[in-house]
Write a structure and sequence with these properties.
1116 residues, alpha+beta, Phosphatidylinositol 3-kinase Catalytic Subunit, Chain A, Domain 5, seven-stranded antiparallel sheet, 64 strands, 13% helix
């Protein structure tokens, strides 16, 4: 559903909006249905009710029903009729079912934010419509009187029946809070207020929804003892309650941590003796939820605020904080609570008096699934004590057997039924996405009482592979104000995930798990592929070539190698997830994920690192066993790998890819470093986790499991190589030592990995580099020259002059790639701005980082002509004179080499718009591009641009080369003004003859706009796309300065570099050859100490007053 706006008050409309008389009318609509009525699938969806006001039957065949005035036949009725005086209900579920005699479902959902709903006859005449109106949850909007009147809101919803005789003109504004949510060092008085005369403020302090019907409180039952083992007695019923209060005086907000625990004292497992219930008070905040009620009006929306009063305020926690609040019986009630063992366990025990529950699922309330067990809640997210998101959501318990742990995982759902249909925040700092329809708060699965991050660790290690991985952000959680410990925020994998990450429409994804269980889409293509795999030999190359069009072998290899290496014991017969975009056939050269092939996704990798089976567990044998047991490796789960290994080429690639990844991604030092890194992030919060859940029991227990993982990281590679040799009959390991004549001149690609700084497991200059490979398994080496150099020859194990060679080693070998200066000057991208769905939509931007960079980020800085920019949606200047994403793509100036060599695909691409007005109050819209050209010369700046009815006829260009406040000049430019047209054109600004631009760490380009009337404000725009900065990489002998004022010596240098010239007030910066800043300081005594640098080539920038020079230096 679409995003919901906030509405403060509705005005009652008595005007009949029917364009012409019709005996069929839209009589009632429900746009946010969570509890009113369910469809034939047991799901709650929006609906539209039609009513025949006449005396004759009306046939609706060919009529259109739409939520889009521009698409009146968005959904078309089948051959159905509505008798006189009768009703017809159409579900707006996006299920698209149009079969006469069966429940009808449209191919869209309607938004509670308000949309025009139209009924159109086959002659394309709109015969009835409903105005765009924001409608609250479980409130309908319909005609009063029934069938003939204007529209009103109904608290009593009447599907397929006459509308209630009591309607409402609107709903109330919510009360105002005197303090925003947050963290505080001392208590305060909180005031709730309203300007609505005769109204009453209801509030709660226990997390529950305030309701007039709950002023006397609600009592629910629970148990703290269950017959865990056969023969044990069931516990007695206990009770708790929650209540709504009527506001009269300010509320005292204080630190409640010393108060008795409430919900923390409730058992959340089937344990006979739950030892995890805290014996002393835990940390507590205060959740205040309030609404306004008044006779004759619909209640206001409930507002939720959360307050934490701790001595350290926002510094109390080192992690983001999640506050969840809801009616506590929805979680803890014996009969209906989804967080307790409850009635379902007692019923299970009666039916199975001699069984042990550990081997079975679905025995407790917390195994209840589906939308019927989704509970409305509030989700508030704090970072550094500041609320970033406060939103009503749907909440379900998540997971498989990990539900049996006392702290459970949650699925979080954003739906327009609750308010916004997205959670708009960038929860994962390393991923450029800020719109989520769902998230998971995860208890770390089978790792809950061990390290608390194993699955996240594995996916962090794997995120550069050809496998989909999930974001990770550990959080501190509170439920109804009580401390609930550590939960990991993770991506929720559903069709919306693939829309967000790969721009695949939600209706075009097949997502399956385990043995073809459908999560999204269907399984038709999958079973056809499995049938082909089962019945064909892949020793025949043609069959293997075909199957590569059905699945992505690179994704498959990386996925299986990762799980095999990490010794996943809950796999491959479980926790295997795979996906494809629906296509009618394989689409070669499509963007990643759009070619119709199956790919794999990292999922629930908790039972790894020798949790069971030991470090030497042979997962490779298990993953290729044709007769494995149902758990963990039945025959179906090993079929694909077994069959692909029939092909000799695939087998060699599989072995070499395994070796490549053990030399990089799963290198012991890298895994050990990542474990320490992730441990450090959550270590400050673990003592509270120990105290809250006894999982792990204490610091010693936690470090025991961490050390198990470290032992695994150190020892697993040797065992894994043994398993590979045993499986494939390989005699021995081989040490391959690679070197280059000069690391500044080129590098080597070994099979699938580039042996260069930045490849996982490789830091700095790696040469000479040694990797472990296998006897008699051919390996491929490719020498890759850097700009300004060419490959000359190999030396050592080969004397070939071919850049790419294959060796079949039978002993350890050493080989060197030799490069020499020469070759044509090649202009390569230094920066590239690709406009795609990673740019947040409908959001005014102030800056935009380059999507490709050689070293440091390039940044677009935008200056609006309107003071106060950027504006919020409440401002009259919202989306005026702004820089925003635009759905207007072009292949002009697209650079595949700056986008992983992917071919252009318009479905992935957007644009960057600058909106009117372009001038106001003496100011003008301005784009400033900030980047470094260090290490490059002959710079060119290019982009595609088009004027979209904005009346802009030209773009003015100038640039700056100085540090500090820019001095804008146009010296040397062939033209300082570029003519703009209504169609996309390529514009290139050639700086190649302006030497001051070369090797410049402070280079800036400025773009402004000209035209006959730049103050026009009609919502039109200029759109940019595919912005590129390119240049020729400098070699040692091409670096030069216009005037040489300083000399450095000796060069090459061992430790101390001397500088001649006036070094008073001189500063220096040292960069890698590709422009990455390493150190900066002031020059003292005309010397710079370089003893801390590794051997190699660097750029040295010397700055003294207005004089800046760049030198290339070699550290020996």
């Amino acid at each position: 559903m679409k995003k919901t706006a906030t509405l403060l008050f509705f005005l009652f409309s008595l005007a009949n909006t029917t364009p012409i008389f019709s005996q069929i009318v839209i009589n009632e609509i429900l746009t946010s249905n969570t509890t009113i009525n369910a469809d034939e699938d047991g799901e709650y969806h929006d609906w539209i009710e039609l009513y025949n006001t006449g005396a004759t039957t009306v046939n609706l065949s060919g009529y259109g029903l739409s939520d889009d005035p521009a698409l009146l036949f968005k959904w078309v009725f089948p051959n159905v009729s509505v008798p006189a005086g009768q009703y017809l209900l159409i579900w707006c579920s996006d299920k698209n079912r149009a079969v006469a005699g069966s429940p009808l479902h449209t191919n869209y959902k309607i938004s509670s934010a308000g949309e025009v709903i139209s009924l159109t006859n086959p002659s394309a005449v709109v015969v009835n419509s409903v105005p765009s109106t924001v409608i609250p949850q479980n409130i309908s909007y319909g005609r009063l009187p029934n069938g003939t009147g204007g529209f009103a809101f109904f608290s009593v919803v009447t599907p397929k029946a006459a509308n209630s005789s009591v309607g409402y003109s609107g709903f109330l504004n919510p009360p105002t809070f005197s303090q925003e949510s947050g963290f505080f060092t001392s208590g305060f008085n909180l005031t709730l207020s309203t300007a609505v005369a005769g109204s009453t403020i209801l509030y709660t302090l226990d997390g529950s929804e305030p309701k007039a019907s709950n002023l006397g409180g609600t009592t629910y039952s629970y148990k703290n003892q269950y017959p865990e083992h056969p023969g044990q007695a069931t516990g007695s019923f206990l009770t708790k309650n929650f209540t709504t209060l009527q506001y009269s005086t300010p509320l005292v907000i204080a630190d409640r941590s010393s108060q008795p625990n409430k919900i923390a004292n409730i058992s959340t497992t089937y344990s006979f003796t739950p030892t995890y219930i805290p014996t002393s008070p835990i940390l507590k905040g205060t959740v205040v939820r309030a609404k306004l009620i008044k006779s004759g009006s619909l209640d206001s929306k409930t507002i939720t605020k959360t307050y934490y009063v701790f001595p350290l305020a926002g510094n109390q926690f080192s992690l983001p904080v999640v506050s969840i609040s809801l009616d506590e019986n929805m979680l803890y009630d014996y009969y209906n609570g989804i967080y307790v063992a409850g009635k379902d366990f007692d019923d299970w025990r009666i039916a199975h008096p001699t069984w042990e529950p550990i081997d079975y699922e679905d025995h407790s309330n917390y195994y209840r699934r589906g939308i019927a067990n989704e509970r409305p809640a509030n989700f508030t997210y704090f970072v550094n004590g500041i609320p970033q998101l406060n939103q009503d959501i749907g909440l379900r318990v998540h997971g498989g057997s990990s539900r049996d742990f006392p702290s459970k995982s949650f699925n979080l759902y954003a739906r327009s039924d609750y308010g916004d249909d997205t959670m708009s925040y960038q929860f994962f700092a390393d991923r450029p996405f800020a719109n989520f329809s769902g998230l998971v708060l995860r208890n770390s699965g089978n790792d809950f009482n061990q390290t608390m991050f194993t699955d996240a660790l594995n996916q962090e290690l794997m995120k550069t592979l050809n496998v989909v991985t999930k974001g990770y952000q550990p959080t501190i959680t509170f439920i109804n104000g009580e401390f609930n410990g550590l939960l990991n925020l993770r991506d929720k994998i559903d069709n919306n995930y693939f829309k967000r990450v790969f721009d695949i429409p939600t209706t075009e994804i097949d997502l399956l798990e385990n043995e073809g269980a459908v999560q999204e889409g269907d399984d038709v293509h999958y079973w056809a592929m499995i049938d082909y795999i089962t019945n064909h030999s892949f020793a025949t190359q043609a069959n293997f070539d075909y199957i590569k069009t059905q699945l992505d072998p690179e994704s498959f290899k990386d996925y299986f190698i990762s799980n095999i290496f990490l010794a996943n014991r809950d796999w491959p017969g479980n926790n295997i997830v795979y996906w494809r975009k629906k296509t009618t056939a394989y689409v070669p050269n499509a963007p990643f994920g759009h070619d119709g092939r199956w790919r794999w996704l990292a999922h629930d990798m908790d039972d790894t690192y020798a949790r069971s089976g030991g470090i030497n567990y042979n997962t490779l044998a298990a993953a290729t066993d044709p007769n494995g047991p149902p758990i963990p490796n039945p025959a179906w789960s090993t079929l694909i790998l077994r069959k692909l290994l029939e092909n000799n080429t695939f087998t060699i690639e599989f072995i070499n890819r395994f070796a490549d990844l053990m030399n990089t991604t799963f290198l012991s030092s890298r895994v050990l470093s990542k474990i320490d890194e992730m441990k450090a992030v959550i270590a400050p919060e673990m003592p509270r986790q120990f105290a809250r859940w006894e999982a792990p029991a204490d610091d010693g227990d936690w470090n025991y499991f961490l050390n198990l993982e470290k032992d695994f990281a150190a020892q697993r590679p040797d065992f894994q190589r043994t398993h590979i040799r045993q499986k494939f009959g390989i005699a021995s390991n081989i040490n391959a030592t690679l070197n280059v004549s000069n690391a500044s001149h080129g590098y080597i690609k070994m099979n699938t990995i580039e042996v260069v700084d930045g490849t996982p497991g490789i830091v700095g200059n790696p040469y000479p580099w040694t990797g472990i490979y296998f006897h008699n398994i051919p390996v491929t080496l490719k020498a890759i020259a850097k700009p300004g150099y060419v490959f000359d020859r190999w030396s050592g194990a080969s004397n070939s002059t071919n850049a790419e060679i294959t060796l079949t080693p039978t002993a350890n070998f050493s080989i060197t790639a030799n490069f020499i200066a020469g070759g044509p000057e090649i202009s390569v991208p230094i920066y590239f701005w690709m406009m795609d769905s990673r740019i947040v939509n409908d959001t005014p931007l102030q800056t935009l980082n380059s999507t490709y960079k050689v070293a440091t980020d390039g940044v677009i800085q935008y200056q609006s002509c309107l003071v106060g920019y950027p504006f919020t949606a409440a401002s009259p200047n919202w989306r005026k004179a702004s820089m925003e994403r635009r759905s207007f793509a072009t292949p002009i100036n697209y650079r595949p080499e700056a986008n992983k060599n992917l071919v252009y695909a318009s479905s992935d691409m957007k644009g960057l718009q600058i909106r009117q007005p372009f001038q106001s109050g003496g100011l003008q819209n301005t784009l400033i591009f900030n980047f470094s050209t260090a290490g490059y010369q002959k710079i060119k700046f290019s982009f595609a641009a088009a004027d979209e009815l904005a009346g802009v006829t030209g773009i003015t260009v100038d640039y700056a080369i100085n540090s500090g406040t820019p001095t804008w000049i146009s010296t040397g430019l062939p033209a300082s003004s570029l003519p703009l047209t209504s169609a996309y054109q390529l514009y290139q600004i050639d700086f190649s003859t302006i030497t001051s631009v070369n090797n410049n760490l402070n280079f800036k380009v400025r773009l402004r706009f000209t035209g006959p009337n730049m103050t026009l404000d009609a919502g039109n725009r200029v759109t940019f796309n595919n912005i590129a900065v390119e240049g020729v990489q400098t070699t040692l002998d091409t670096i030069a300065n216009e005037v040489v004022r300083f000399k450095v010596y000796p060069n090459p240098v061992a430790d101390i570099l001397n500088i001649s010239g006036d070094t008073s007030h001189m500063n220096y910066k040292i960069f890698t050859i590709d422009g990455k800043l390493l150190k900066t300081n002031q020059v003292e005594s005309a010397r710079i100490n370089l003893s801390d640098l590794q051997k190699g080539m660097y750029l040295l920038q010397l700055s003294a007053e207005d004089n800046v020079e760049i030198k290339k230096i070699i550290k020996k």
